[in-house]
Amino acid sequence: MAKRGIKYTLLVLVGAVLVYNSVYIKSLQAVKAANKGFDVDGYASNYLFKTIPKSTAAFTDFALLRNTLQANPSEAFDAYSHAPSDGDIRYFMVNGSGVVVSKDSGYVWLEDSAKQSFKLASQYIYGTAARDAAGLVSVDSFDNTMVFNEVSEKINFLIKKQLTPTLQQLAVGDSLRFIGAIELNRKDPVLAETTIIPLHVEKSQKERR
Amino acid sequence: MKHLNIWALLLLLCLGCGNKNKDGQPKQIAIVVSTLNNPWFVFLAESAAEKAKALGYTSKIFDSQNNTALETDHFENAIAAGYDAILFNPTDAEGSVVNATKATDADIPVFCMDREINSRTAATSQILSDSYAACVQLGKLFVGDLDRQGNYAEILGIVSDNNTWNRSKGFHSVVDNFPDLKMVAQQSAEFDRNKAMEVMESILQAHPDIKGVFCGNDAMAMGAYQATVAAGKEDQVKIYGFDGAEDAVNAVKDGKINATAMQFPKLIAEKAATLADAYFKGERNFRKKLPIAVDVVTPKNIDQYIAYGKKN
């Protein structure tokens, strides 16, 4: 009788251990909830309107970048670019100024004091340059890359909504100071063909040239 | 007394589940892959196994057949068998979190490959293609190729996989800026070639005027291509894929599809195995998410690429 009791006790014990190690229950809702708490709108707004204007150390003077790219492209990429991955596409956060020389439906063309022309996007704002150029937003801070990419889309949305109207109202001859993000391919870095995504624009005194 | 010893032995065996290999034995790496029904994932798994072997470890490949329950079984077995690390290509961004957590809780490091799980803590590190950024580039190409106007369709991958949405959203972040480009159909074919062919056949019947189709992977792009050939519309419909699979790279070369995006599965797999090696040697400080750049491959630069990677 005692033997049978021990046998059944051990059977129950073994069964309990097997069940404990075989079944893992975690609510899918709980997993999903972990991602839904992130305030994408607030994060993007804070980044664009508070963090960026204060992060002057992360900017590269546009003329300096041009000169460095001409003299030593590799050094320019190593010193001034950022990207979440290690591919050929890299991003630069630049600041500069220029005078509007022409406009079309998608871009404002400017010329700087060295008579070099470049363009700012005034209509189509896409890609991850605005998020990645300063190297201030890390994918490691996000539970998943979808949220990381939502941040990029929200930053672009805010730029389009709040900054591009200023660019669209500019007239030829207007002067502009800007902070902007650009994307360049390490294999073929053609600065003249790249588009600057504006992150901060400031119209200065009009001076016809 | 004899029976008591047997039961005690069984109990000890159960409690001992998850123990690592004894010192001196080659470490074992489990390679758990979402499906081996797609050559891209076969290449990913075999590349991981080759690298593990080169590093001095034994490995075994487990096929989850896109089934999270089967994936759970594989994790249970890997933990019980005492595998020392798991290189993991998940089936489901949410549903696979539990499996990775289970291994991590058993002190078995988990390194995700290509597909993401929605957690920063469940896996030791996640090596992921930057699908979104690549599809921004594909979107730009698409807009230019279609001259900013016309009807088009999109064939999505598995809806519970983050790659599906990162690719779709990257593409739409560009294309949706152009109102004369109208998406007339968007359907999932679950990353499957045959399903994509069926989906494309029905899309072409309902919308015979489409000028382009964006597909979430190369298998679906090739399925879509077969459907356009069957409908006699292969010259009308521009096709875009994603992966860099062998048949898609050849199809870009032959002008059958317009572009794909090269994901570099060998690089991803080798990185995962190398991180596992570093873990075995004591490293514990890993980046939680490690994006890998993806190249857009078109007829213009096809000479630089081979299946699954760049030419040396």
Automatic annotation (TrEMBL), chain A:
Keywords: Lipoprotein. It holds the Pfam family DUF2291. InterPro entries: TM0957-like_sf (IPR036215), UCP033535_lipo (IPR014582). This is Predicted lipoprotein. It comes from Olivibacter domesticus (Pseudosphingobacterium domesticum).
TrEMBL record, chain B:
Residues 29-283 form the Periplasmic binding protein domain. It is found in: Cell envelope. It comes from the Bacteria. GO terms for molecular function: carbohydrate binding. SUPFAM superfamilies: Periplasmic binding protein-like I. InterPro entries: Peripla_BP_I, SBP_2_dom. CDD domains: PBP1_TmRBP-like. Gene3D superfamilies: 3.40.50.2300. Pfam families: Peripla_BP_4. GO terms for cellular component: cell envelope. PANTHER family: D-ALLOSE-BINDING PERIPLASMIC PROTEIN-RELATED. Belongs to the bacterial solute-binding protein 2 family. This is Ribose transport system substrate-binding protein. It comes from Olivibacter domesticus.
